[in-house]
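Q: I have 338 residues here and want to know how they pack in 3D. Can you give me a structure?
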Amino acid sequence: MLRKTFEEPDIDQQWANLQRSVPKSIPAATDQRLQKKRYFLLGIAAGVAAVALILLVVRLYDNYLDNRPVTVFLAQHTETAVTMQAGEQEHVLSAQKEISDPLPGVKIDSRKADFTQAKALHPETRTIQTSYGKDYLVVLNDGTQVIMNAGSKLTFPTKFEGTERIVSLEGEAYFKVVKNPERPFVVRTEKLSTRVYGTEFNVKAYKGSDPHVTLIEGVVVVDVPNLKKNIRLLPSEDVSVKNKTLEIRDIDPQYYIQWKDGFLYYDNVPLGEVLSDIGRWYNVDIEIEKSSLMSYRMHFVVNRNAGIQEVMENLNEFKFLHASKSGNKISIDDKKNS
């Protein structure tokens, strides 16, 4: 059988044909893809660097916030006194003499105001205010006893009428309420109100701090209008309002009421709260040199009959604190920086 014969290929011609058949755009496309990949990687690197820079700035700012001074308490620079507002008249009650109230039957001196025998045809409003470093006893018209702590204000009627016995408080007070099932006793503060029929309890509601109600005996109902909630407390329970939430704890109530017997007792309480109470009683400015110290919690006792120097010596017993005093200002710093 005959085989078909072929012409010998022209190698140079075939190579030229192959070169012409390859698109000239391929090298350009490859360069473009490489360039896009390079830009993508550079973008990632820039993003990581930006995030790192932001985190660094945030950390530095947090360190600044942690290390800046914080004024915990500012003293009153006026004469300390207990005063009573009766209409347009203001009476100083801390003078060592008996004070006359416009109403007959009211007995007032430097330690106590007694309204149980007040002869009032119609109720009049009285406001008694204690300055820093002073406490005071008020006996209301129904016999209820109110021990006011330093820096507090109590507003009340000279005679209770109507279906409720209502008083207003700013600061701290211990209430021993005379029982009357027909007429509940109500203590109103800025953020909450407490309703009782006859019991003993403590209310702490200074401006700028978390309000507390601590029950000693009986039952109370605490109403928080802003949260539209009310809580029924049992003895040895404490309720507080913190960051728009209610917190109820089982406590030893003696820790919360020893102030009325001359002691400040703190069990696992933030340093800032402890120093605020010290400043309020001793009427001194207090500054914490580092705000990060505010979160420390303390077990601490203050004898309010002791001098401020003794209190500072006790503070300096803590391993992490250093207290120093210049004029009427106490500074609290980290011990390692003192």
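Q: Anything worth noting?
A: DSSP finds five helices and 23 strands in the chain. The first helix runs from residue 11 to 21.
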